[in-house]
């Protein structure tokens, strides 16, 4: 006959085996969850990179047009500032390109498109003067920054492009 200690030992072995099985099951679930989180993180980063590459492609196009004098500086700086502000993986570009962002800051409150057409002639001329004055103050620095921006944008596009 089995005595009390033998029953206790069998019960302990059964309990320990059950706990070991449960612990193994939890570790497997944790492993799966960790893998899913890693995949989600990679997918999110890929989505951010895809967004930024699209934005940087546009910035590169506008920068090239500005360098070739096919786009006015005020319009180009406006567009570039808005685009760079929408980047998901870069920050503090205002410090890197202060003249471009500076011109945008000076002209962003001025009327454009239909709103500008509705202005009285005198007010429209005043805004044009403000725009031209701001552009002339920052022109030389913008020309320098366009080269830096072109290089920066090209490097970032290369970095964000999937390897072939």
Automatic annotation (TrEMBL):
<keyword id="KW-0472">Membrane</keyword>
<feature type="transmembrane region" description="Helical">
    <location>
        <begin position="6"/>
        <end position="24"/>
    </location>
</feature>
<protein>
    <submittedName>
        <fullName>DUF2489 domain-containing protein</fullName>
    </submittedName>
</protein>
<dbReference type="Pfam" id="PF10675">
    <property type="entry name" value="DUF2489"/>
</dbReference>
<keyword id="KW-1133">Transmembrane helix</keyword>
<keyword id="KW-0812">Transmembrane</keyword>
<feature type="domain" description="DUF2489">
    <location>
        <begin position="16"/>
        <end position="147"/>
    </location>
</feature>
<dbReference type="InterPro" id="IPR019617">
    <property type="entry name" value="DUF2489"/>
</dbReference>
